[in-house]
Amino acid sequence: MKHLQDHWFGVLLLAGIGWMHFRDIPSKMGETPYLGWLYILLVAGCAAAGAWLLSSHWKSGYALGLLISGGAIIAYTLTRTVGLPNARGDIGNWAEPAGIISLTLEAAFLVLGLVQLGRSNRALQTQSAR
Fold first, then answer.
1. What is the pTM of this model?
2. Structure confidence at residue 87 (pLDDT)
């Protein structure tokens, strides 16, 4: 359980990101099915990344979480600016509470993931210098 002690905040952020998208899957499947499937992949990816954070492969968990979080932020920005194919209804809708919460969780994971991976790289450099 050492990995849970070390990476519990990352697991919590991934759970929040996954939950925010999970609860919107039914409406996305009705409106724009391909976005619904992307949400399903995002939720599964959050679960996989969280599981890796709880293992000795925690670096892979942060890498996958960074990919998911960064991708979600980019997709959110696109849906609010130029729109996506068959999904133009959210253009200009920057103040949606669920979107703001998701962006906050994703940005927090980006910062945490970069910090954790940076610490790991510095620790490896310190060990190799000895």
1. 0.88
2. 85
Ramachandran class of 91: left when φ > 0, alpha when ψ lies in -120 to 50, beta otherwise = beta
SS3 83: coil
Q: Is the pLDDT of residue 5 over 80?
A: no
Averaged confidence pLDDT in the chain: 90
Is residue 128 exposed (0-12), middle (13-18) or buried (19+ Cβ within 10 Å)? exposed
Half-sphere exposure of 8 (CA within 13 A, CB side): 5
Distance CA 25, CA 44 (A): 12
Predicted confidence band at 6 (pLDDT cuts at 50, 70, 90)? confident
The Cα 110–Cα 108 span in angstroms is 5
Phi-psi region of 55 (alpha: psi -120 to 50; beta: other; left: phi over 0): beta
User: For the chain, what are the domain ranges?
Assistant: 2-129
CA 95 to CA 83: how far, in whole Å?
16
Is the pLDDT reported for residue 57 higher than 60? yes
